[in-house]
């Protein structure tokens, strides 16, 4: 596991807690609720005390509408001929000469016939009577269409296109018709028209004041289906590209530098290309490093030592472009050539972890240790795996071992402090951090991560001081790491609710490093906080380009689709904007 993994992990955690702490931002329902773990928001939002006079029982809903799902209305008068099979079938002339009140009465009677059939599960006949009611009625009645839609829903097989047509009509006549909106959502979902289904479920949830648990669950279900399908599609179709510079450099800096491999007396072009690749890596020119190593392997290297080295590097790039299978192949091949290649074993461990196989991960570490028991990288990376698995005690022991073997690697110190913190040893953690700050006065990482822990403890001023120090140290570099700037923005927001200042920090970070995913993600959340949904959606799109793995993509898509659904709601129901905000306010814990 790389250091980059743990930093992004940490960031996801922070966004998560940011989201939990700022339910209002997110309130708005669907979007963030799901990303924050789903039910939390609805759990709190869905159980305000019901007023005693509330007669509507919203829990009475099911996909197959029960008979009482069909509105009966009041029938004023019985029409004697109503049992004739062609009852209500009128010619154009008959209709035109019939007085309007007569037509209203006849339509109501036809609707009642429809209801009777519906209750007896004769859905074909029921639909026929609703059609007659529609033809006879002098006015367009949404309930006739909605009821006929219910019939189509219960036919075998259900007539989804007809349901949608009738619900379209009913909703066009009465846009607050929640029952019709939910029914159309069911049909759309069945037809896999997920974006439209999400729009309808979201609308129904909001119109119901977030009280309908079923609709809320439907929102989550459809969001999940939609996001994971879309994420898989993006991964399949997009060109493989390296992740952001910060991510790669964090990944490579999690391995100590090794000497260049010895070249034969008469090196081939391929041998020299490998050396160029490794030199490019040293100066963080990843694009060239990648193309050099690809070339070297295509040309064919002089011997197995060089070939194993090249496969290790190409496998690493494959891992970084999320080609986990390809990475596995290269790394295994490299070990086959040189079985004692500890770094390849460590990277294989990362691959197994990415594949969700901790058992093989730890076996790979054991193998690495067998060949080189004093390699500090092995223990550091094994610590990372324990850390990710929430075993902070083992993580700390491994970081400590790594530090004992070589105390010049700043991340094993930082991660030890963070593991101690997670384990609840706050005083030890703070002490480790203070020692690390002293030992690495020129590095920005110790103040940055120390600042994060201070922020977690609500020590805002201290945290901001540390972030400022980290920013200052980064300013002297040619490629500046902007994470401390984003952290400062988050701190200013959490401390003073100063959205303007927080946004400024993130924008500054993006000017320096346009690929900083943390800055984009934070800006998106801040936009949602201010109900600037359009801006948020644009930022989510940008985040999609920066996201590396499928789960990251799916997570971003969840926010994006939820935001779009809310945006659509506000466009369709501008008059409800106020009520919507009030509802949002009421959800603040
Ligand atoms: C490859 O060549 C280098 C330089 O001659 C040498 O040091 C190394 O041992 C060789 N590796 C193998 C596996 O023969
Ligand atoms: C690290 O290991 C050494 C040697 O086993 C031990 O003395 C020390 O207390 C450990 N430090 C931490 C912080 O766990």
TrEMBL record:
Family membership, please give it.
Answer: Belongs to the Tom70 family.
Q: Which SUPFAM superfamilies match?
A: TPR-like (SSF48452)
Q: Which PANTHER family match?
A: MITOCHONDRIAL IMPORT RECEPTOR SUBUNIT TOM70
Q: Where is this region: Disordered?
A: 43-76
Give the way it sits in the membrane: Single-pass membrane protein
Identify one Gene Ontology CC term for this UniProt entry: mitochondrial outer membrane
The name on file for this protein is Mitochondrial outer membrane translocase receptor TOM70
């Amino acid at each position: 596991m790389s250091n980059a993994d743990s930093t992004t992990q940490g960031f996801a955690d922070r966004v998560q807690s940011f989201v939990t702490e700022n339910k209002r931002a997110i309130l708005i329902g669907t979007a963030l609720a799901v990303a924050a773990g789903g039910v939390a928001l609805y759990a709190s939002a869905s159980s305000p005390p019901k007023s005693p006079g509330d007669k509507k029982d919203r829990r009475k809903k099911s996909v197959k509408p029960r008979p009482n799902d069909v509105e009966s209305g009041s029938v004023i008068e019985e029409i004697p001929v109503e049992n004739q099979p062609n009852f209500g079938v009128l010619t154009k002339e008959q209709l035109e000469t019939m007085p309007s009140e007569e037509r209203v009465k006849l339509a109501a009677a036809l609707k009642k016939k429809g209801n009777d059939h519906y209750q007896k599960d004769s859905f074909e006949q029921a639909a026929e009577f609703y059609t007659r009611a529609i033809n006879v009625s002098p006015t367009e009645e949404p309930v006739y269409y909605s009821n006929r839609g219910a019939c189509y829903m219960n036919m075998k097989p259900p007539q989804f296109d007809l349901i949608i047509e009738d619900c379209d009509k009913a909703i066009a006549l009465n846009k607050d018709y929640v029952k019709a909106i939910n029914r159309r959502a069911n049909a759309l979902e069945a037809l896999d028209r997920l974006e439209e289904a999400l729009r309808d479920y979201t609308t129904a949830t909001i119109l119901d004041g977030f009280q309908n648990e079923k609709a809320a669950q439907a929102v989550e279900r459809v969001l999940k289906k939609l996001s994971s399908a879309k994420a898989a599609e993006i991964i399949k179709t997009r060109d493989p590209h390296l992740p952001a510079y910060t991510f790669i450099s964090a990944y490579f800096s999690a391995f100590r530098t090794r000497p260049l491999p010895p070249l034969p007396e008469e090196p081939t072009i391929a041998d020299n290309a490998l050396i160029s690749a490794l030199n490019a890596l040293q100066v963080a020119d990843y694009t060239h490093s990648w193309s050099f190593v690809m070339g070297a392997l295509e040309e064919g290297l002089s011997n197995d030592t060089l070939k194993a080295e090249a496969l290790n590097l190409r496998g690493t790039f494959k891992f970084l472009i999320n080609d986990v299978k390809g990475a596995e192949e290269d790394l295994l091949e490299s070990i086959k050539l040189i079985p004692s290649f500890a770094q390849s074993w460590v990277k294989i461990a990362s691959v197994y972890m990415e594949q969700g196989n901790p058992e093989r991960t730890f076996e790979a570490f054991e193998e690495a240790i067998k060949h080189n028991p004093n390699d500090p990288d092995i223990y550091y990376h094994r610590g990372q795996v324990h850390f990710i698995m929430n075993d902070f005690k083992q993580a700390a022991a491994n970081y400590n071992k790594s530090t004992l073997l070589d105390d010049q690697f700043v991340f094993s110190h930082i991660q030890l402090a963070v593991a101690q913190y997670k384990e609840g040893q706050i005083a030890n953690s703070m002490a480790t951090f203070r020692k690390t700050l002293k030992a690495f006065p020129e590095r920005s990482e110790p103040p940055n991560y120390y600042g994060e822990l201070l922020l977690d403890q609500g020590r805002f001023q201290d945290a901001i001081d540390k972030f400022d120090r980290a920013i200052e140290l980064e300013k002297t570099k040619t490629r500046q790491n902007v994470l401390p700037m984003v952290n400062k923005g988050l701190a200013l927001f959490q401390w003073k609710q100063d959205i303007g200042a927080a946004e400024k920090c993130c924008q500054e970070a993006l000017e320096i490093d346009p690929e900083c995913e943390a800055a984009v993600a934070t800006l998106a959340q801040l936009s949602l906080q201010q109900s600037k949904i359009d801006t948020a959606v644009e930022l989510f799109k940008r985040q999609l380009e920066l996201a590396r793995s499928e789960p990251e993509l799916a997570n971003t898509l969840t926010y994006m689709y939820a935001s779009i659904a809310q945006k659509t709601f506000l466009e369709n129901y501008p008059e409800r904007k106020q009520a919507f905000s009030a509802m949002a306010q009421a959800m603040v814990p």
